[in-house]
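Pilot study result, target chain (307 residues):
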Amino acid sequence: MTYQTTLAGPAVCAGVGLHSGVRARMTLRPAPADTGVIFRRVDLKDRDNVVPLSADAVTETRLGTTIANAAGASIATTEHFLAAVFGLGVDNLIVDIDGPEVPAMDGSAAPFARLIARAGVAKLNAARRVIRVLKAVEYVAADGRRARFEPSERPEIDIVIDFESDAVGRQRFEFSPDCDSFAESVAPARTFAFASEVESLRRAGLAQGGSLENCVVIENGKVVNDGGLRFADEFARHKALDALGDLAVAGRSVVGRYVAERPGHAVNNAALRALLADVDAWTLETLAIPADSTDHEALERRAAASA
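Predicted structure:
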């Protein structure tokens, strides 16, 4: 798609945060071209409550991605929501939220994708601007986990995970965030946790809102949720979903191939920062709009697919 987009109308959702357990209401509002995606903590009246997307705005990556502004206004667990926004090609959006964490919903991006589809996606009379990867940039963590950006004609994500648990094992999933099948093949993949870790997480103040309604739980090598998995490789699909949402903090789509081995939120953000720090590795490109462009038709198909 070469045109910028926003929502055709407002949309609202509410729910508890996965880690805080705090209920929040989130209202999505259309925004003009070149606004980008901006969060507003409407419950905070004593400071600057506007939190734009930025790789440098990420302040926490333990089991989720938190962004914050200089005044300390923060939004936690942004990745599932941002995956839906960028997976469905929405460029400009104002997100009003009255709590510290994005609602967990069912632990996937699917509820947000449906919310966007119901509101409708509108084309704006302005060309999209994207981050185009020009050369390979790799980040290697101290524990051996690694991630790499490579040049590509389209956005691509290629994820490999490897867990000792028999329920997960080694899985690989790759997809293009531009594909019309995002809503069906990636958005429904849920976050997951191991039952043996839940108690320690709660003692650390995490997973306070977690349940079988918003998380796949693995115990003794088996999935304990009624109905089992939505995909045989749901774990890898969810890690790919996380990667898309984590890269979205750049504020624009990244046109390039992202290849990651055993990634997490910290690795995704560190790799993104490494890319952006190398001024020779990327460029901000304005996409050309063909005179007979029919991009709006592809956009409408994508939104309809998530309805």
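One observation from the pilot: DSSP finds seven helices and 21 strands in the chain. A full batch analysis is planned for the follow-on phase.
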